[in-house]
Amino acid sequence: MIDRESLKKGILQEMIRQSGSPIRLLTDEERAASLQQTLADHPEPGSDIWVFAYGSLIWNPAFHFVEKRFAKIFGFHRRYCMWTTLGRGCPENPGLMLGLDRGGSCKGLVFRIAEDAIQEEMEIIWRREMLAGSYIPTWCRAETEAGQVWAISFVMDRANERYCEGLDEDKLVDVLSTAKGRIGSCAEYLFNTVEHLDAMGLRDQQLSRVAERVRDRIGCA
How many CB atoms lie within 10 A of CB 89? Predict the structure, then answer.
C-alpha cells in the first residue's frame, strides 16, 4: 500500500530505478517546477487548494486535508487509459491504470488542503502523481453540494508513451484480470475503486460492469 511516509521517502521513484524500466522519471527540479507552475496558475490565488480524486486518491489519499466533498467535473471522464509495467503490471504483462481522459464528465471527491499546509501536502501528491509526467495537472471547475470550487485534476497526457488509446471491453477485462506488479494487482485496484464509489453513491456503471466480469474471470466471490 502506498502511504504518506513511503511517498516522502521516494519509495516509488526508487522502485522504478531498481526495476531498470525505461520510463523516464521527472527530476526533482522538473517536478518542483511543475508544482510551482500549477500553484502559480491557481485561478483564485491566496486561498486553500482543492484536489479532485477519481481513483485511488478516493480510498487512499495519503495526504492531509481539512475537508472533503462529493464533486463532479465536466470535460473529462474516468477511463483506463494508462499502461503500467511496474506498480500493478510488469513488462511481460502490462497493467492499466485509471486516468482522466477528454470528454464527458466525472463524479468523485474533492479534498481541501489548508493554505498553510499547501507546500508540504502538494509535494507529497506530486511525488505520487507526477513521477513520470504522464499526467497534466489541470485546474477544473468542480461542482459540489456547497458550491463550485477550482480543483487540481490529473488529466492523462495523450502524447505520453504510456497513453492507451482505448481497448474493447473484452481486452480490458483480460488485462485487469491478469496483470499484477510490486504494489498489487489491477483487479485489487479496480475492486477498491468500485467499492468506494458505490459506498458513496457515485456508482460508475461501466466500471461496475467490468468489475463483475473480472470477478467472474478470476473466480472471486
Answer: 22
